[in-house]
Amino acid sequence: MMINRTATILLIICLTATQLLGQMVTHDPQSIISDIVEDIVAASEDDVDLDALIEDLVFFSENPININSTNPDELGRLVFLSDFQVISLLDYIKNY
User: Fold this and answer.
1) Please, are residues 54 and 37 in contact by the beta-carbon 8 Å criterion?
2) How far is the C-alpha of 73 from the C-alpha of 43, rounded, in Å?
3) Which residues contact 67 (CB under 8 A, 6 or more apart)?
4) 53 and 40 in contact (C-beta within 8 Å)?
């Protein structure tokens, strides 16, 4: 009788604990933009125009690129993509 009660309680606990949080996912555009800006400034040896960079990132957060109908110039404005990544992405889209 005690085993049934324990098994029932464990079953209820397992069935009700459906949401697990391994990592907290941040969907706040401002925090994502600030992370990207920090990474670019840290990796860049040249002076970076922060105003233009932030303006572009805010623009793309509000107006996402349609990845299937984009062009090299539009992808080139994404400063966190290298030229090789832009070419590879466009080549992949063309082939598949």
Assistant:
1) yes
2) 23
3) 89, 93
4) yes
> To 5 degrees, how large is the angle CA 25–CA 64–CA 90?
105
pTM of the model: 0.61
Task: Compute the half-sphere exposure of residue 28: CA atoms within 13 Å on the CB side of its CA.
Answer: 6
Interatomic CA distance for residues 22 and 19, integer angstroms: 10
Could you read off the pLDDT of 38-55 as tens digits, one per residue?
988 888 878 878 898 899
Q: Encode burial over 32-51: b for 16+ CB neighbours within 10 A, e otherwise.
A: ebeebbeeeeeeeeeeeeee
